[in-house]
Design brief:
With 317 residues, the protein is of the alpha/beta class. The protein is built from 12 helices and 16 strands. It binds nicotinamide-adenine-dinucleotide and 2-amino-3-ketobutyric acid (AKB).
């Protein structure tokens, strides 16, 4: 099955929050025609469906993935397809099937076709027993199904590197804040929704409490981290390859609401925690990313002020 790895890049789950920014960044870097966006769904009027290379592809269909890899000369997969925490806790079977099953499909295809793989993890790998600032190495005891699938993903990514030499890499993304695309069924979605609500309605009902503090990151930093990790020479990638901690910004929901109130006249936020509070409470406040700094020189650029200014500016325009 395996031949010479191709030059094209396949992105799974490309119509989601990260895909919206990552496909654009990869096309800017490698050329418009080098990047194939794929997703199980097709969205009308989406720029990736309307322009550029797009294929409808489920990560649960290994035969279809093989065909795309062979027909399109794929050499690298950025595997973004997943079910996130809030949706996943409502439908744990689907979450396990897509997150674990989909990652097996991708890793098996990579082994057979000699591909490189980027497979993201999450701060959801940590459980309530992790220190408030979670180190790279600590027992991983997540209480959410989503978090468990992400731990399994990290283990599989490491195994395929150790057993088969597949060049697999991943980052434990914090909650990501971006303006191009809505967030997709996660617990940290309030940090995106609040900006839209502030500008459109002047009010937001926040589904976690005011003192909820989580590791977060502006999307530009997350995309840069992804590209830098994939560009790093093999010898600089250590045992954290399954999921590097990367730190961005740690803020409470109230600190975010206050920062928006200072900039949007009359904005009000009420805190009405729902079932997602429990998932947020099981995650750390911040992460220690010294291993990513040492291994491949990671450093975040956005703080809360810069992120809030840019989100409001972009969304207002
Ligand atoms: P998202 O929910 O916005 O997008 C996921 C995409 O996967 C969707 O477009 C969906 O249609 C697609 N998908 C679902 N099932 C599929 C299947 N069977 N086959 C193909 N596609 C399928 O998610 P995202 O925020 O873009 O996250 C991407 C990755 O990053 C995930 O692995 C997620 O766990 C991880 N991550 C995201 C964040 C964040 O804040 N966005 C934080 C930590 C980790
Ligand atoms: C979620 O909230 O599920 C994601 C994540 C932190 O993995 N944003």
């Amino acid at each position: 099955m395996s031949g010479t790895p191709g030059d094209s890049i396949l992105v799974t789950g490309a119509l989601g929050q990260i895909g919206r920014d990552l496909v654009e960044a990869l096309r800017d870097k490698h050329g418009q025609d080098s990047v194939i966006a794929s997703d199980v769904r097709e969205v009308e009027n989406h720029p990736f469906v309307e322009e550029g290379r797009f294929v409808r592809l489920s990560v649960l269909d290994g035969d279809a993935m093989d065909s795309v890899i062979e027909d399109e000369d794929v050499g690298t997969i950025y595997h973004l397809a997943a079910i996130l925490s809030a949706t996943g806790e409502q439908n744990p079977d689907l979450c396990e099937r897509v997150n674990v099953g989909g990652t097996i499909t991708v890793l098996e295809a990579a082994r057979r076709h000699d591909l490189r793989v980027y497979s993201p993890s999450s701060i959801a790998v940590f459980g309530p027993d992790a220190p408030a600032t979670a180190p790279q190495i600590t027992p991983l005891n997540p209480t959410t199904t989503y978090g468990k699938t992400k731990v399994t993903g990290e283990v599989m990514v490491m195994n395929y590197w150790k057993q088969y030499g597949v060049d697999t890499r991943g980052i434990r993304y914090p909650g990501l804040v971006s303006w191009k695309s809505p967030a997709g069924g996660g617990t940290t979605d309030y940090a995106v929704e609040i900006f839209h609500a502030a500008l459109n309605k002047g009010h937001y009902d926040c589904f976690v409490g005011p003192e909820t503090r989580l590791p977060m990151m502006y999307m530009d930093d997350a995309i840069r981290a992804t590209l830098e990790l994939m560009d790093a020479p093999t010898e600089s990638i250590g045992d954290a390859r399954g999921g590097y901690n990367v730190s961005g910004i740690s803020f409470t929901a109230k600190e975010l609401a206050d920062a928006i109130s200072e900039r949007v006249d009359g904005f009000t936020c009420e805190f009405k925690p729902d079932h997602r509070q429990e998932y947020a409470d099981s995650w750390p406040d911040a992460v220690d990313d010294s291993v990513a700094k040492d291994d491949w020189g990671w450093k975040a650029e956005y703080d809360l002020t810069r992120m809030v200014d840019e989100m409001l500016d972009r969304l207002s325009n």
